[in-house]
Structures are given as C-alpha cells and as structure tokens.
Design a protein that fits this description.
single chain; alpha/beta; Rossmann fold; Arc Repressor Mutant, subunit A; transcription regulation; transcription; DNA-binding response regulator
Length: 213
C-alpha cells in the first residue's frame, strides 16, 4: 500500500485529491496538511511513501517543503511530488533542483495524478507533459560547454541518460536499446554514482542542463 501525505492550503483541493487517490486499491492517504510547516512536521513524523505538495502555502511554500524533505542535505530524503496550478519556470526548476521526484499541474487529470504517485513510489519521475515540453525547449538555447562529468560516462550510459531525460521508463529504455531490465537498472545506478545524483529526476535535469539530450 502506498502511503500518501497531501499538503495544500485549500481544503477543497485536499478533499479532491484524497477522493481520487483513495479510489485506487493500492493507495491510501495517511495525513493532510494545510500549510508548509505542518507538512514538514507530519512528513517527518509519519514518513509517508509519497508527499503531494502544493507550491503556494502559508508559513512555508512548496519549494521550502521540498528542500526540507528531499533536498541534497537531507540524510534520509522522502519522495515529493509538487502539485500546483502554477507552471512558472522558476517553480519547475526550483522544485526539481530541490529534490522533487515529480512536478504535476492540477489540471493534468486524475489518471496522471495516480501515475505520478506510483512512479514516485517506485523511484521514477513524472513531470506534466506540458511542463516537459517547455523544459525541452530550453535545448534551443545557445550551447554551453558540457560539464566535465559528461566525459566520465560511457557511450551506453550517455544513451541511457538521454532516454531518462525523454521520460522513458526502465522497460522502455531496455526495449529501445535492446538490453535487459536488470542491465538498465545497473546503468542507472552507475550513472547516479558517477554524477553524484540521487534519482532519475536529477539525471534528467542534469541532462537538460548539459545538453546531453
């Protein structure tokens, strides 16, 4: 059972998200929080599998909550999916760089919400398609010198990084590159170690930043 915490300052939104999630046989909502400070306190106490966090909340916003629960300095980070009405670039990058494993717009629909929760629980990342498209548009910007760490990757590892940045699952990567699922997982683990990254979202952000895609 996937245990979820919902953090949003609007009671109606929290109720709507709860209804969608608890309609699924493998998901249960264990707590709700009406502001950022409460979200951090409850998440640290209850250790949910996935935290759904709104961007704009009183006392501490969603980016602060994300950094507190999933940031680079957190010794045992939780999985955070940011759910918001606002798809401003600074929110997207702030959330992903802060450690979020997903970024979802509230108008994305129930199916994508459920998929994002399951993806986060399994260590994968899901970003709303409209947001992904805009992130990829940054690839049209003038190229910059790639980070030195690019040279640490093998050709096959670079291929895996590209597929992750395109939003492919491990199964899809295996099919695309004609390698087994276990080999894909091994490559992902090695890539994370070489680049000092913690999850697939960070790999994707790194790939976009270094124009590896």
């Amino acid at each position: 059972m996937i245990r979820v915490l919902i953090a949003d300052d609007q009671a109606m939104i929290r109720s709507g998200l709860r209804l969608i999630l608890e309609d699924e046989p493998d998901i249960t909502v264990i707590a709700e929080a009406a502001d950022g400070v409460e979200a951090i306190e409850q998440a640290r106490r209850l250790r949910p599998d996935v935290c759904l966090v709104d961007i704009r909340m009183p006392r501490a916003d969603g980016l602060e909550v994300t950094r507190a629960l999933a940031g680079p300095a957190v010794p045992d980070p939780l999985r955070v999916v940011v759910v918001t009405t606002f798809d401003l670039d600074e929110y997207v990058y702030g959330a992903l760089r802060g450690g979020a494993t997903g970024f979802l717009l509230k108008d994305a629909g129930p199916a994508l919400l459920v998929e994002a929760v399951r993806a986060a629980h399994h260590g994968d990342a899901l970003v709303s398609p409209s947001v992904t498209v805009r992130l990829l548009r940054h690839l049209t910007a003038p190229p910059r010198e790639p980070d030195e760490s690019v040279r640490a990757l093998s050709d096959r590892e670079v291929e895996v990084v590209r597929e992750i940045a395109r939003g492919r699952t491990n199964l899809e990567i295996g099919a695309e590159l004609f390698i087994s699922l276990s080999t894909v997982k091994s490559h992902v683990s090695t890539i994370q170690t070489k680049l000092t990254l913690r999850n697939r979202t960070e790999i994707a952000v790194w790939a976009w930043a270094n124009r590896v895609v």
